[in-house]
Amino acid sequence: MDMLTQWIGWLPNLAPGLLVSLQLTGLSLLFGFPLGLLFAVMAAAKFPPLQWVSFFFVEIGRGLPALVLLYLMYFSLPDAGITLTSLTTAIIALTWNTGAYASEYFRAGLAAVPLGQKEAALTSGLRGWTGFRIVILPQALRISTPPLAGLAVLVFQGSALAFVIAVPELMSKGFEIASITFEYLSVYLLTAVIYGSLTLVFLGLVRVLELRLGRHLQRN
Amino acid sequence: MGLSFGTKAPRTTHSGEVAVSGLGKSYGASRVLSDVNLVMNEGEVVSIIGPSGAGKSTFLRCLNYLETPTEGTIEIGGARVVAGGKLPDKARLDHLRRVTGMVFQSFNLFPHLTVMENITLPQRKVLGASKEQAQEVAEKLLKRVGLPDKAKAYPARLSGGQQQRIAIARALALSPKVMLFDEPTSALDPEIGLEVLAVMRDLADEGMTMLVVTHEMHFARDVSDRIMVMGNGGVLEIGPSEQVMSEPQNDRTRQFLKAVLDR
User: Fold this and answer.
1) Which of A3, B23, B107, B146 meets the CB 3.0–4.6 Å disulfide criterion with B36?
2) What domains, with CATH codes, occur in chain A?
3) What confidence tier does B241 reach under pLDDT thresholds 50, 70, 90?
4) With contacts defined as CB-CB under 8 Å, which chain A residues touch B111?
5) pTM of the model
């Protein structure tokens, strides 16, 4: 049987897995990016305990491989009397991981906004949250967008790790098919094509977004 | 005179008047500004000149607390702040920054906002102006600085001189009582600098109280009422512009003026 017909036959079985992968990725980014921004702002806070909390969560989130974090949460939470579905556990672990890395990208973006912008905001009466929201944050976000997009791709690909704690995502569906048909190479080639093509489409969209965000800086 | 407490100076500030006394700033043991005194009447223009490292910009930036002075008193347009000890509360800082408008050497327009938004957003957030009110003010100001057709442009599309004129309009939009200029033409080539100086000259003619740190000796002599010469963190001399330029009293001033005028 030629590979393409094989693939078309498998797609209906893989589709629910892909949806779970996208759900896991989407929710991890949805919670992880704001968490990262929060960590970045806390790291720059004048109140030291806020810095310590940020440091603690960021360094653990970056220090541990996502796989280790997944296992730790999956096996420790039930012992602590917290029973969550494996998908929820995976979302929490990947959110932590995402937030930790994203905080560094946000921090870099915030640090890259020239000091003169903050001074101009202050002398224009835009202080505190208002100045941050209107003047500093939009400029920082533009700077942080390319590395954050890269992180989003890594999280999407990293979502495959949730396979190990029995989240029914794309790889686990692939494994199911492979263990019945023994067509391991063909199945994993198909998952590779799916991951790769979605990533490329996403990065293309990000490129368009970057151009839009940088439009005001073009001279002509 | 009203009530005065202890040894603090009585409040005698009128609109647009500046009274700075004993202003100083130290970073640990290093003293960058000491005992600067300056009283300005409403509508007066004072230029601050002097060599690099004299403390000109530091002095100007202390007036709106971009730098924190460590001693002295600042009174501007009814706002009064005593330096040293605890930082003044937010309300006092807000007041001080409301009555002062600042123009920077590097313009510092908000690059992600259009010219119109640069001028209207502070009005809407600080003064609570409606969008229409703010736009009306902005359009008048854009006309005043000679750029009525640039409302929709982003700053990156404008020349340095145009950006600085917009920055002046942005500062004026909040109706400050005193305008502070920190080397407004130093980042511009001499020819482009002229269009900014022309706007500043108009502003002076209209009676704005202005304090200008500058290396433009013609502007200092022709437009300002008085010149304050700073050196080594302090005031070397201050007097009517013509007098300071033609018969400086201080040796260091003479040396500085000779260096800049002989170029």
Assistant:
1) B23
2) 2-214 (1.10.3720.10)
3) very high
4) 139, 216-217
5) 0.88
